[in-house]
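re: that complex we talked abt at group meeting.

here r the seqs, copy pasted straight from the sheet so there may be weird spacing, ignore it
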Amino acid sequence: MAGSAYLPGLAIQNSDVLDTPRHSALVRVTHWITALSFLGLFASGIAILLAHPRLYWGETGAVGTPSLIDLPLPFVLGVPIRGPGRYLHFLSAWVCVLTGLVYIISGAFTLHFRKNLLPAKTDLAWGSIWRAISNHLHLKRPTEEEALTYNVLQRMTYLTVVFVLFPLVIWTGLAMSPAITSVIPQIVTVFGGQQSARTIHFFVAAALVLFLIVHVAMVCLAGFKNRMRAMITGHGAAGKELS
Amino acid sequence: MSAILSRRKLITTGITAVAGASGLAVAARLADRYGLIPPDHSGIFGVGETLTYAAQRVLMSRHSLAREFNRSEISKVASANGKPPENDPY
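got the structure back, here u go
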């Protein structure tokens, strides 16, 4: 509203709100680089999987041996997608891992995780978690004020993605490398073998894809324009709802 | 935040850029000397390939050997993935 701009106190408050970005520049840059690399990993991962869409447990597995899961996908061997897929997977993985390291180290130093992602103790009570779940189930949009911080479900999801799923997918990926397991065999033996590592790699990657789908769906439901603006420019609602 | 481009910003950016470029050049020279540049280092995937190749060589520089397996861990069927090519001299 135009009237409020004449009140000096309010005006300062508003400019304060607008000057502190919703997401820090580092979070925004690493977010989009990770998003891009994840797209590359997803596409190339499918290309690699299609060379042999069966999952095994233990050290070995081949067409003639018992498999854990036969994915309902065709063996694509005639189309040359494996080579480029592998190249793209490794390049994207490097981008993803290096960006992730920058994010983790700077996030630890700037207290990003403690301030923005660690749920408050009071929020971890069942009542509070249940309220958040019920809000989601009723498709209740957050108010602009609520949208300035993450709710308890978001915090737990992001922490799981950053500190459980990504480390696990990187670990199982490295466990499939003969070069790395020749130096540190324990990296693969803890999973019970290379094929087990591959199977876990598949399921963790699937969990990350599920996260991506829910994440994008929630961004759309909560207000695509504002959320995108916040993650690109740092500022959410362009002063309209706030002033 | 006053001007978009202050003198201080310009100088720090310049120094960072020069330091980064010379660091990269030194890294490339060193990598070349220690044989860390793969044959397929050019092209769009070259950066990833070079990083993988170099990281593996550095990690395995103490000549680690491939893992050994028990007889029970070796697969009984060693079928090729797909049919062997028919046209090539295979």
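couple things i noticed - The interface with chain B takes residues 51-52, 58-65, 75, 77, 84, 87-88, 90-95, 177-183, 185, 188, 193 of chain A (CB under 8 Å). The first strand of chain A starts at residue 54 and ends at 55.
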